[in-house]
């Protein structure tokens, strides 16, 4: 017997929903249909043990279609836009494991197969890490080269970017280290001028031309070959890991097109990043490699363990943070994360980081472009500006989420969303026209973050390091004392302020367009700009007012007191935390970027402040907001249910709905069941004992019924439309001339999860989240009253957001809601298939009348 999987201390992910859905390129989302009212109709593989436990007290094992001699094609698999049955998948895996263990001592070949099965998990995450690291290195190298292609080209080697082209030059000066004879701008190649208005205009035109070309090519490839390659991918990855199936979203075409278009989108200069899409790319690799191993290809629940490890590898290569990647997978995207998945995620992140380090795409022996190290400690008084940066990050996150969701909703509801190519071209054109005049918006966003993070040393030639030297520095040292800002610093501050406004506005309109678009880098850039400005302000304040009591103890004359680059790093973490509401994983990621334990406290203070401020305006992060906008079937474990509704308030059918369709244990014929299947759209039916006794017997899935009847007609003689269908253990006595009965007890779930009508919805929602239920029956004294599915819960939560309930229950909350079976006139109350349904309505009307009388009474 297959034991309940939650007894093994492994809670299943969110409850499963039952929906058909469709993909729309214009919205890049999945819209759930309204006609599926119950759960997904999916059957187990023939001969598979299927166990469910209600309350931990009743166990039953059912075998699917014992009457069949061979498995039916398609049984045990899932249709597109359906949810998996976690209970069945766990039971299938345990049966497979038992079968392998029972045969491994029979021969050397069986022992080899057992070892292969045991090590297949490590093999698949190893391949995933290798592929993720290799693709990340390829994307980094190609994106850098194509970004520099907008400004010029290397004549000696066309495949070199600007920095690589000037490595071999002996004519590069310290002040103009980026200028060398081998690198030619487009103005020099076309009109032969390196300086002057004509050169500036020609470079301006070529910059816009290449930006529009890259953007147009990216959106065209996405539209024609892989519509699923658009966007960040993290909201969809979270939904898939919760049990939803989106065929093709992690396929080979999506992987190929996303890899190519991600390079084009980053090179076009749009306000987006490649870090989020790299998680999608890594999950595509994990999904493709899982099909090489039967252990994962035939089990959707096991496959999601590989995808959790792949998401960790994606963050590992995106930020060069293996430990942060594991924590990101645990905190942000995964909901079924057993201990072995933690180990394999760590190993996948390690392999991916090792491969990327071997490729060395940036030429600095680091995994990311903006790796920095600081040598100056932080002081206690700096916690105040760090917290202020956290406040800014929270405000930015709340503003961005509301503004971006409003724009995406408008895109969905207007004709503008029907022209994704035009939208991308318009956004790319506006971005290129505005970005070129400002040197801080013209460069790649990763290059900008690198410059903002870098501390000013004697070898830095950036205008951000244009300080006046008040003392002679005879040797190169790491710690240069604080100095007064020069004209270059003040000019850079104004340019950074304009870049900050530009980035804030354009990121709102860019995230969500139909090209691969990540949010990590733009958010970090906004925070880094704000942090650098604050850092310079605090540095100058400490220099000119070192005798103030807050600076007097730490900032002496000639001391290196303030590090503006550290403020940029803290601001970047605060803004990213305000948008995503990440905490632990974000701090570890930024810590791995800097390589210093000393700055964990400022990072923690800023990140927690940004989360608190952001939560004050709404608890949803950007990914949860997009999941809700796109209508994905996802129950957020972070969301608290504080309302006072009961299961009877949410169950179906409602007052004006069609009656609850039920099956009787042994009183229905094959024609009766087929008519019910054809006349309804439900994907499951409760089975009761009889019309006289409405006690619950079990639950039968629509697909199981269809498969069983079709198979019985083909393989069993005497099964006709008038044959009696029996779900009972013993077939009732029938007249001699009656046709052969059809026994379907084998497909019946004998222990469906049930709750009473008085069960608070707070408990019901928690059950769906932790046990991964697909549906839950509502009973009263053993009589079926209705059913609750994940769709019903999501609709109920959405309704409650529009109508805030009182914190305390109403005075009539504990009234008996179900009167006796006989009404005040002595006649039986109306029933549907002898199932009493209208008592809730009558009691609600009595309660509303009593409330009305109470409100109208003068006290």
Automatic annotation (TrEMBL):
It is found in: Cell membrane; Early endosome membrane; Late endosome membrane; Lysosome membrane. Keywords: Antiport, ATP-binding, CBS domain, Cell membrane, Chloride, Endosome, Glycoprotein, Ion transport, Lysosome, Membrane, Nucleotide-binding, Repeat, Transmembrane, Transmembrane helix, Transport. One of its GO terms (molecular function) is chloride:proton antiporter activity. It comes from the Eukaryota. It is a multi-pass membrane protein. Signal peptide: none annotated. Its main location: membrane. It holds the Pfam family Voltage_CLC. The chain crosses the membrane at residues 119-143, 207-229, 249-270, 277-294, 306-330, 379-401, 421-440, 492-513, 525-546, 566-591. Residues 808-833, 840-859 are annotated as: Disordered. One of its GO terms (cellular component) is early endosome membrane. Residues 651-715, 748-807 form the CBS domain. InterPro entries: CBS_dom, CBS_dom_sf, Cl-channel_core, ClC, ClC3. Strongly outwardly rectifying, electrogenic H(+)/Cl(-)exchanger which mediates the exchange of chloride ions against protons. The CLC channel family contains both chloride channels and proton-coupled anion transporters that exchange chloride or another anion for protons. The presence of conserved gating glutamate residues is typical for family members that function as antiporters. Belongs to the chloride channel (TC 2.A.49) family. ClC-3/CLCN3 subfamily. This is Chloride channel protein. It comes from Podarcis lilfordi. The lineage of its organism: Eukaryota, Metazoa, Chordata, Craniata, Vertebrata.
């Amino acid at each position: 017997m297959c034991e309940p999987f939650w007894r093994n201390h492994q809670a299943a992910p969110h409850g499963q929903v039952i929906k058909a859905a469709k993909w729309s390129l214009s919205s890049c989302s999945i819209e759930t249909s309204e006609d599926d009212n119950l759960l997904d109709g999916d059957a187990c593989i023939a001969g598979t043990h299927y166990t469910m436990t209600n309350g931990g007290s009743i166990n039953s094992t059912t075998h699917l279609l014992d009457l069949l001699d061979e498995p039916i094609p398609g049984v045990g698999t899932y249709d597109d836009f359906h949810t998996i049955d976690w209970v069945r998948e766990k039971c299938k895996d345990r049966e497979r494991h038992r079968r392998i263990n029972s045969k491994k001592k029979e021969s050397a070949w069986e022992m080899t197969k057992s070892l292969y099965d045991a090590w297949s998990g490590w093999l698949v995450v190893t391949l995933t890490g290798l592929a993720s690291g290799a693709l990340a290195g390829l994307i980094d190298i190609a994106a850098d080269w194509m970004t520099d292609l907008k400004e010029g080209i290397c004549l000696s080697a066309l495949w070199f970017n600007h920095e690589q082209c000037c490595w071999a030059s002996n004519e590069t000066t310290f002040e103009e280290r980026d200028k060398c004879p081998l690198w030619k701008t487009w103005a020099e190649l076309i009109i032969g001028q390196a300086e002057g208005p004509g050169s500036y205009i020609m470079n301006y035109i070529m910059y816009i031309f290449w930006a529009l070309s890259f953007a147009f090519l990216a959106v065209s490839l996405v539209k024609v070959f892989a519509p699923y390659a658009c966007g960040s991918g993290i909201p969809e990855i979270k939904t898939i890991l919760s049990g939803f199936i989106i065929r093709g979203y992690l396929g080979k075409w999506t992987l190929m097109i996303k890899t190519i278009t991600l390079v084009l989108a980053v090179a076009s200069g749009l306000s987006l990043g490649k870090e989020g899409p790299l998680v999608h790319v890594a999950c595509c690799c994990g999904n493709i490699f899982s099909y090489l191993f039967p252990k994962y290809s035939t089990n959707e629940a096991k496959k999601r363990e590989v995808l959790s490890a792949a998401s960790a590898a994606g963050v590992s290569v995106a930020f060069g943070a293996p430990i942060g990647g594991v924590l990101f997978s645990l905190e942000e995207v995964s909901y079924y994360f057993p201990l072995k998945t933690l180990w394999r995620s760590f190993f996948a992140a390690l392999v991916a980081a090792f491969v990327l380090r071997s490729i060395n795409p940036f030429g600095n022996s680091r995994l990311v472009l903006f790796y920095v190290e600081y040598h100056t400690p932080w002081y206690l008084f700096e916690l105040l500006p760090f917290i202020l940066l956290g406040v800014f990050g929270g405000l930015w996150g709340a503003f961005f989420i509301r503004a971006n969701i409003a724009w995406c909703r408008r895109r969905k509801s207007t004709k503008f969303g029907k022209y994704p190519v035009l939208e991308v071209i318009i956004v790319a054109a506006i971005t290129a026209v505005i970005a070129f005049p400002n040197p801080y918006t013209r460069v790649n966003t990763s290059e900008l973050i690198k410059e903002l993070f870098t501390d000013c040393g004697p070898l830095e030639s950036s205008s951000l390091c244009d300080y006046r030297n008040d003392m002679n520095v005879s040797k190169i040292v790491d710690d240069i004392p604080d100095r007064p800002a020069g004209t270059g610093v003040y000019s850079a501050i104004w340019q950074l302020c304009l870049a900050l406004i530009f980035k804030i506005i354009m990121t709102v309109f860019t995230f969500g367009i139909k090209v691969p678009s990540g949010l990590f880098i733009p958010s970090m850039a906004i925070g880094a700009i704000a942090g650098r400005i604050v850092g310079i302000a605090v540095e100058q304040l400490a220099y000119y007012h070192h005798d103030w009591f807050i600076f007097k103890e730490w900032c002496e004359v000639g001391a290196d007191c303030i590090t503006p680059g550290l403020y940029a790093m803290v601001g970047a973490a605060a803004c990213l935390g305000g948008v995503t509401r990440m905490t632990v994983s974000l701090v570890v990621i930024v810590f791995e970027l800097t390589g210093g334990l000393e700055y964990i406290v400022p990072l923690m203070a800023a990140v927690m402040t940004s989360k608190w401020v952001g939560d004050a305006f709404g608890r949803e992060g950007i990914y949860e907001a997009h999941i809700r906008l796109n209508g994905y079937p996802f129950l957020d474990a972070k969301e608290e249910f504080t309302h006072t509704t009961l299961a009877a308030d949410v169950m179906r059918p409602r007052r004006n709905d069609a009656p609850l369709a039920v099956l009787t244990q042994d009183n229905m014929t094959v024609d009766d069941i087929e008519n019910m299947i054809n006349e309804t759209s439900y994907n499951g039916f409760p089975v009761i004992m009889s019309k006289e006794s409405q006690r619950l017997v079990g639950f039968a899935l629509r697909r199981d019924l269809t498969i069983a009847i079709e198979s019985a007609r083909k393989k069993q003689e005497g099964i006709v439309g008038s044959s009696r269908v029996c779900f009972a253990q013993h077939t009732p006595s029938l007249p001699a001339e009656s046709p052969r009965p059809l026994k379907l007890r084998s497909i019946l779930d004998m222990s469906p999860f049930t709750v009473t009508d008085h069960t608070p919805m707070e408990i019901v929602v928690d059950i769906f989240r932790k046990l991964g239920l697909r549906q839950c029956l509502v009973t009263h004294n053993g009589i079926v009253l209705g059913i609750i599915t994940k769709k019903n819960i999501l609709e109920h939560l959405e309704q409650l957001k529009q109508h805030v309930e009182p914190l305390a229950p109403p005075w009539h909350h504990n009234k008996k809601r179900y009167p006796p079976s006989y009404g005040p006139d002595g006649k039986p109350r109306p029933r549907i298939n002898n199932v009493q349904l209208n008592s809730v309505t009558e009691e609600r009307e009595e309660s509303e009348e009593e409330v009305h009388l109470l409100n109208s009474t003068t006290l």
